[in-house]
Amino acid sequence: MPEPTFWVRGVPVFRGLLDGSAQASMVEDLRGVVAAAPLISPLTPRGKPMSVKMTSAGKYGWYSDRAGYRYERRHPAGVSWPAIPQSVLAVWNSVTGLRRRPDCCLLNFYGTGARMGMHQDRDEADFSYPVVSVSLGDDALFRVGNRTRGGRTESVWLSSGDVVVMGGAARLLHHGVDRIRNGTSALLGDGGRINLTLRVVD
Ligand code: SIN
Ligand code: FE2
Description:
This protein is α+β, with helices and mostly antiparallel strands. The chain has helices spanning 20-36, 86-96, and strands spanning 6-8, 11-14, 53-58, 61-65, 68-72, 104-110, 116-119, 131-137, 139-144, 154-158, 163-166, 175-181, 193-199. Strands 1-2-11-8-13-6-3 form a seven-stranded antiparallel sheet, with helices on one face.
């Protein structure tokens, strides 16, 4: 297993775990995911559209609307979510060493002005499994806080190819993305950032 480059509040960061060619081929795989399951703009439970566009691969997709946050077996268009690409599963294997595969790969796309407020990932059944996050494209200011809302936080710029693991004592830390630095990567052609989060749901 690779060694983390550094830790932020107990969260290991593997800087540049994916090299340029691995990033490019993963993006090709993800274009296939988006072709099968187009990006959507979920609503928060309060009915506000999220600035991040989303889709998923795997057995479940993460979804949100006025009925709340949840995992769904199908894209809102009615189709099953496409399979999680092998290139993405390989990252999960590399940093977790687990035999259990993730049930969901949530794909978040951050265009201009998109951000993600502080939250916990807590819609999964078993918090003993980690959440693995992969950054592709423009740099993002990632903030990590505490198990409870508020309090001290620390931020780190995540770059394309970086992988972060939220597991163990860090599994339920609040986290979010304050902003994206546009034009810091040429990977996606039209700019923006993709973040993948891999989750065991059941
Ligand atoms: C998330 O918490 O779902 C996304 C984190 C990120 O975009 O880096
Ligand atoms: Fe999250």
